[in-house]
Design brief:
Elements (H helix, E strand, L loop, with lengths): L19 E5 L2 E4 L4 E4 L2 H4 L8 H11 L12 H12 L5 E5 L2 H18 L7 E5 L8 H7 L2 H4 L9 E4 L4 H6 L5 E6 L2 E2 L5 E2 L2 H14 L2 E5 L23 E4 L10 E5 L20 H14 L4 H22 L4 E7 L2 E6 L5 H11 L1 E2 L1 E3 L3 E4 L7 H23 L1
Parallel strand pairs: 3-15, 5-6, 5-7, 7-10, 10-11
Antiparallel strand pairs: 1-2, 2-3, 4-12, 8-9, 11-12, 13-14, 14-17, 16-17
Helix pairs in contact: 2-9, 3-9, 10-12, 11-12
């Protein structure tokens, strides 16, 4: 029998004892009443902040009518959302999921199935890049090839060939007759806020076309307006064959999606793929509410402008505290501060939380800064002031 004083929740997260009670806009309040400026947004999930009035009303109205019917019946709000997503992207078809990892699993299945029905079932392998994070299922940890996440889970799922991020020569050299697709994030999140160069993304599209591969992108974190465009790959003026997305698409409600061209989706016919809860009426209502805000005239332009302002303030911050921060990098409102090698990003994150600013870590000793898309320049200034104070104290401690 377990100790009744211990948490019954499985110990898979190193949780802070702080418990949040309510939120409003870009702020959170814990159970003691303390207010925090939220610059991690549930890891880029709360794209429109907390308790957005439009999302709250839509969810409440839908909850009073219908929650679940299953995908055996037409779901009108899902039809509407799928149409809106295809009209705001390269895609012709949408499959709704409950999470990013479910979308990634479906994306990998889509790529394999595409080649199978095209007469080339041997083309099941997917080229991935180092520093990637695609989720925590057995297939997606194999795709990312991170030893930390693979350890202890038995033989690695076959079908993935990992190459250095940004190295086109090694990627091209890794293509074999069994290669079917290239998978990567346009901006790596967990890997350390590493944006792919626009030229690199264009070369990936050209290489996929040259070898008859699918270019499938992980836009779970970088999509849905996070970089100032609806999808991060749009900055390179390319069209992938399919993408997986989630996080911000539901504004805090669990949902994800696969967006695909008609050709790439040809293998996913009735009985080949499915989900019990994906695309349920509650999720679809909220997804449409998110789209109402993101697609409003001037909204994404505002995100782009705010992102540029944020970038400039972070650059100034790095210049003022060179012993703490090595660089700032990112795109739009997906930014990162790279800490110096002798400065632990996790310790700085703890200090920022104590000061009232919530951030989250990433690879390469990076502090991730992912404010809601509704953040203002004044709130960015507030966050910069808190980081400035923490970094100044850090530098003084080192000097002492």
């Amino acid at each position: 029998m377990s100790d009744s004083t211990q948490s019954a929740v499985m110990n898979t997260y190193a949780r802070s004892p702080i418990a949040m009670e309510r939120g409003e806009g870009v702020y959170l309040w814990d159970t003691t009443g303390r207010r925090y400026l939220d610059f991690y947004a549930g890891i880029a999930v709360n794209s429109l902040g907390h308790a957005h009035p439009h999302l709250v009303k839509v969810l409440q109205d839908q909850a009073a009518k219908l929650w679940h019917t299953s995908n055996l019946y037409t779901i009108p709000e899902g039809e509407r959302l799928a149409k809106r997503l295809t009209e705001s992207s390269f895609a012709d078809r949408v499959f709704f999921t409950n999470s990013g990892v479910e979308a990634l699993e479906g994306l990998i299945k889509l790529a394999r199935r595409y080649h199978s029905v095209s007469g080339h079932p041997e083309r099941y392998r997917v080229i991935t890049v180092d520093g990637a994070f695609h989720g925590r299922s057995l297939a997606t940890i194999a795709a990312a090839n991170n030893k930390k996440y693979l350890d202890g889970f038995g033989p690695k799922v076959d079908g993935f060939d990992n190459v250095p991020f940004g190295n086109m020569n090694m990627l091209r050299d890794s293509i074999t007759p069994e290669t079917g697709a290239i998978l990567l994030e346009p901006v790596q999140g967990e890997g350390g806020i590493r944006p792919a160069t626009l030229d690199y993304l264009k070369q990936l599209r050209q290489t996929a076309d040259e070898y008859g591969l699918l270019l499938i992108l992980d836009e779970v974190q970088s999509g849905n307006g996070r970089t100032g465009k609806m999808w991060a790959h749009e900055w390179a003026d390319i069209k992938p064959d399919a993408i997986a997305t989630a996080k911000g698409i539901g504004g805090g409600f669990p949902m994800g999606a696969i967006l695909s061209t008609e050709a790439a989706a040809q293998g996913l016919t009735p009985g080949t793929h499915g989900t019990t809860f994906g695309g349920n009426p509650l999720a679809m209502a909220v997804g449409n509410a998110v789209m109402d805000v993101i697609q409003a005239p001037g909204f994404l332009e505002g995100v782009e402008k705010t992102g540029q302002y944020f970038w400039s303030r972070l650059e100034d911050l790095v210049a003022r505290h060179p012993t703490v921060f090595a660089a700032a990098r990112g795109a739009g409102l997906m930014q990162g501060l790279v800490c110096q090698p002798d400065v632990s990003n996790l310790k700085v994150i703890d200090a920022l939380r104590d000061a009232g600013l919530l951030t989250v870590g990433a690879g390469e000793n990076v502090i991730r800064l992912l404010p809601p898309l509704i953040v203002t320049e004044a709130q960015i200034d507030e966050a910069i002031a808190l980081i400035d104070t923490v970094a100044g104290a850090w530098s003084n401690d080192d000097a002492a």
